[in-house]
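Please, structure for the following, as tokens.
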Amino acid sequence: MADEFERTRLIGDITRLLCDVDMPEGTRTAGLTLIGWLARRKPTELPHAIGVPEARESERRVRASRAKAR
């Protein structure tokens, strides 16, 4: 149970760090990749179906909508 708590906490911590707009692209990619590996439920399961390219596109859309709101 403690391992599950730590895994979940680490995913949350990395997610908060990735929200930093000054995050270098390579670091952001590494963080998204790490979250994908941490999100696996069993050793035999693959990481989530949403890959880094899709996550980047989603992030681009979110940033564009935030910029329009300003």
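The chain has a mean pLDDT of 81. The two ends are 43 Å apart (CA to CA).
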